[in-house]
Amino acid sequence: QLVESGGGSVRAGGSLRVSCAVSGNTYSAYCLSWFRQAPEKEREWVASINTNYGGTNYADSVKGRFTISQDKAKNTVFLQMNSLKPEDTAMYYCAAVRGTYCPLRRNDYNYWGQGTQVTVS
Length: 121
Known about the structure:
Blueprint: E1 2-5, E2 8-10, E3 16-22, E4 30-37, E5 44-50, E6 56-58, E7 66-71, E8 76-81, E9 90-98, E10 111-112, E11 116-120
């Protein structure tokens, strides 16, 4: 089970951190990613982390502004979002797929959280 938290509203240029708590005892067997979906747009991949090795990957649109990280002791993945822009406004979803490879397509993920809203004005 994936449970997101930490969304909210912020002014352009501000920062937010969203979290994804993962239940279960096989945390390090998964790739965890963040996706986002704005109204009337497709859900798009934002960032991924290989929970076993710690490798990360980012979409070009967020590279240099967002950082994905993890706290293995708490089975939690974070997305630190800095220099936020209005176009970052979306529902942010945490997703997981078993294995060390982190795909970019939403259909490749088996598990999804309920989402947390991020609004940048």
